[in-house]
Design brief:
oxidoreductase, Rossmann fold, about 375 residues, 7-stranded parallel sheet, SDR_fam, alpha/beta, 7 strands
Length: about 375
C-alpha cells in the first residue's frame, strides 16, 4: 500500500513538472502579433461590413422603434455628438430618464434646451440631466461614479459610447500616463462599469452596453505592453484604436463571467457599423472627402445608434446573455450593426489572454483583483483614483 501511494505521489509530481514545462514553453513562444491568416480574415470582415452593411441591415427601421421606457434610468457617455447624441435623444423621447455623461456640460445643456423646444407639445418634457465626465481622467471617472452611487438610486442601463480614433496623430498620453486610445476606449469605461455595479445591482435587471467596433477584428493586445511604449510594435493610431477595442471585448467577456446570475446584470458589446460621425474629424482630409463620396455605404449617426439602442432595450437580451453564460461561451454577447448576435474576432476567444487583460486592466485602473466580488457582496472598494 505504501509503495502504491508513493508511486501516485511521484506521478502527480511528474505531471506538475510537465505542466510547468508546457507553461514555460508557452511563455517562450508567446504570441506577439496576429497571424497573417487572422489579419487577412479580420480585414475581410471590416471591408465586407463597409460594403454590405446597409444591405444586411435593410430589415431595420430608421429610427429604431423603441418601447415605452418611463421606468428606465440610463447613463450615456459621449452623448453630445454622433451616435451617443442619437442614443440619448431617442431614449429620452421614449420616456427614459437619461444622464448625459460628457466632458463639456455647457454643450450638453444647450443641446437639451434645443431638444426640449423641438419636443414641446409632443408629450411630457424630456427627462434629461447632464453630469461632467472626462474619460481622459480616471479621477474624473471615479468622482462621477462616487457622486452617482451616493444618490442610492437604481441604474438600469450604462452605455459606454464615448471613444476616440485619432487617425494619423502622433502617440499621446493622458495625465494618468496612459496612451489615449487605451484609456478612453477601454480603461475608463472598464473603471466606470465596475464602480457603478452597486447602482446597477439596485436597478437589476440592468445592462452594460459597450459600443465597440468591427475594427477589433484586426486588433491584437500585448498584455505586457498595453500602453504601446516598449517599441516591440511600431505605434500607429490604428494599432492604438484596434487594440483598445479588442481589450474592451476581452474585459467585457470576463466581467460577464464573473457577475453571478443573481446580480441580474447583463454585459454585452455592440458594433454600430461603419458610421460617419465626429470620429471623422481626426481623419486626413482626403479620407474625410472619401466619406462624403460614398454615403451609400456608410451609416449616419441615427443608423449607427440602432444596435446600441436595441441592446439597451430589447427584452430578450438578458435571456441571451444568460444563455451564453450557462453554456460557458468564452466571450460575452456581441451584437452586429444589424442588431443580430454575431461572433467577435478569433483573438477575442483567447480565454487566457482575456484573463490577463482583466488582471492588467484592474491593476492599471487602481482596483483590487477581487473588486467585482466585493462590490457584489455590498462591500466597500477603494479605487486608487477615488477620494
Amino acid at each position: 500500500m505504501a509503495s502504491s501511494a508513493s508511486g501516485e505521489v511521484k506521478e502527480e509530481e511528474e505531471e506538475k513538472k510537465l505542466k510547468q514545462k508546457q507553461k514555460q514553453k508557452q511563455r517562450r513562444t508567446k504570441k506577439e502579433s496576429l497571424g497573417w491568416i487572422e489579419w487577412m480574415r479580420g480585414w475581410f470582415n471590416v471591408i465586407y461590413e463597409m460594403l454590405f452593411q446597409r444591405i444586411i441591415a435593410s430589415h431595420l427601421q430608421n429610427p429604431l422603434p423603441l418601447p415605452p421606457l418611463s421606468d428606465l434610468t440610463c447613463i450615456v457617455t459621449g452623448s453630445t455628438s454622433g451616435i451617443g447624441r442619437e442614443i440619448a435623444r431617442q431614449l429620452a423621447e421614449a420616456g427614459a430618464y437619461v444622464v448625459m455623461a460628457v466632458r463639456n456640460p455647457k454643450a450638453a445643456s444647450e443641446l437639451i434646451q434645443k431638444w426640449q423646444n423641438e419636443w414641446a407639445g409632443m408629450g411630457l418634457p424630456l427627462n434629461i440631466e447632464v453630469m461632467e465626465l472626462d474619460l481622459l481622467s480616471l479621477e474624473s471617472v471615479a468622482r462621477f461614479a462616487e457622486e452617482w452611487n451616493a444618490r442610492l438610486g437604481p441604474l438600469h442601463v450604462l452605455i459606454n459610447n464615448a471613444g476616440i480614433f485619432s487617425i494619423g496623430e502622433p502617440q499621446k498620453f493622458s495625465k494618468d500616463g496612459y496612451e489615449e486610445h487605451i484609456q478612453v476606449n477601454h480603461l475608463a469605461p472598464a473603471l466606470l462599469s465596475v464602480l457603478l455595479l452597486p447602482s446597477l445591482i439596485r436597478g437589476s435587471p440592468s445592462r452594460i452596453v459597450n459600443v465597440n467596433s468591427i475594427m477589433h477584428y484586426v486588433g491584437f493586445v500585448d498584455v505586457e505592453d498595453m500602453n504601446c511604449v516598449s517599441g516591440k510594435r511600431k505605434y500607429s493610431s490604428l494599432v492604438g484604436y484596434t487594440s483598445s477595442k479588442l481589450a474592451e471585448v476581452m474585459f467585457s467577456s470576463v466581467l460577464h463571467k464573473r457577475l453571478p446570475a443573481e446580480s441580474g446584470i447583463s454585459v454585452l458589446c455592440v458594433s454600430p457599423g461603419i458610421v460617419h460621425t465626429n470620429v471623422a474629424r481626426d481623419l486626413p482630409k482626403i479620407v474625410q472627402a472619401a466619406y462624403h463620396l460614398i454615403p451609400y455605404f456608410i451609416f449616419n449617426a441615427q443608423e449607427g445608434s440602432r444596435s446600441a439602442l436595441f441592446a439597451a432595450t430589447d427584452p430578450q437580451v438578458p435571456e441571451y446573455c444568460e444563455l451564453l453564460k450557462a453554456d460557458e461561451w468564452p466571450v460575452c454577447a456581441f451584437l452586429s450593426q444589424d442588431c443580430r448576435p454575431t461572433n467577435p474576432s478569433e483573438e477575442a476567444h483567447n480565454v487566457e489572454t482575456s484573463y490577463q487583460v482583466w488582471e492588467k486592466t484592474l491593476e492599471m485602473i487602481g482596483l483590487p483583483s477581487d473588486a467585482v466580488e466585493r462590490l457584489i457582496e455590498g462591500e466597500e472598494v477603494i479605487c486608487r483614483y477615488g477620494r
